[in-house]
Amino acid sequence: MCPFNGLTQILLLILAIILINTVVINALSIKFENESVTVHMDETISVPYTILKDTADEYEDDGTYLLQLKSNDGNIATIDQEIYVTYNELPKYASMNVTGVFLGKTSVSCRNVKKNKTLDGALDVIVIRKHRLIDTIFTVSVATLVSIIYINFGCFLNWGELKRNLKRPVGPVIGLCSQFIFMPLLSYGLGRVLFPESPEMQLGMFFTGVAPSGGASNIWTLVLDGNVDLSITVTSLGNFVALLMMPLWIFSLGKLIFNQAKLVVPYRHIATSAFGLIIPLAIGYLLTRYCKNLASFLARILKGLSSLLLLFIIVFATVTNLYLFKIFSWKIVVAGMALPYLGFTAAFILSKILRQADPDCLAIAIETGIQNTGIAIFLLRFSLTQPAADLTTVCPVAVSMMTPIPLVGIYIYKKIQASKYISGYEALPST
Fold first, then answer.
1. Which of 103, 123, 260, 345 places its Cα 20 to 30 Å from the Cα of 48?
2. DSSP assignment of 172-195, as one string?
3. Which residues sit opposite 46 in a β-bridge?
């Protein structure tokens, strides 16, 4: 008598079928030439691979395999290729085309269509951004135009007032404290709250907050009728103070955010920014001494040129960074608004409490809220690997895009009020 009853025999048969199928399914594997590849956005590269058989005597019922190569995230990279392989062809050497779609990391796997199982072996795909001509044009054109504007500033400045600001530095001290104490702490807190699971995004926010103010703060102060002399004093001092304060913050709170990052301080970049402001100002000063008619003309056209430059920067920066809008989320928008807006507000309130004049309050607020996002982007690209470096630049880019909104609103309001005043004045009866 058979020691196994009928039910036991059926169960053993089912188990044997499962084991056989498992062996057959795993009879194939795929091997790529490299474990990972890097491709630029909107470019296609060819990647060699080999289909291998693990055993010599196991194959599909009809001796053929239908395999499909596919990207696990088609929003980052695409590869959609089906291949038929016969048993006798193995191992098979071939290649596939991988196309970069957007910044990020994904993987390519191979699926046995008939068995609906994934083969052993995968390819990591890293998509990065290629340096574009438009990026160079934007950087060079803005640097050139800002230098020209600063020559005009040198002609416009009241140099005696500048000296008084240095002798009685209440305004500059408020501005520097707001910029190098309040803004780093604010950016650190916003990063922790809005991006608790992403140390890279926290670093993006933090690097934006520790950067000094840039030339745009002086231009906005001029356009909005703030104290330009105080604004330029704070900007100039701030670029030198940044050489001390940025390392202090980066190697303290910065380490807490992302301890594994290769944190560096762009001393050359900061020094270049500082001297990039001082040299054109010095040229403007020399013009006021030795070419007074030209200096007077340059001072008169400064406001109009500044307005055009701001418009140029806003439009060109938006066009240049359009690709980043794909990863904008409500958190990034909130972060981009919160950092400058809270900076404006806090610095203005502090200045009012310390009884500064309204033009001084406006200048200090603008100096605090406007960051040199170029330095923040530089820091990110040297501290993070690609594509994380480019992805996290969305933080300083978002800040730079959101910063002008309330300033443009103030400018429009002032223009409306000025036009009402002129209209009212013209409506007065002549005597």
1. 103
2. HHHHHHIIIIIHHHHHHHHHHHH-
3. 97
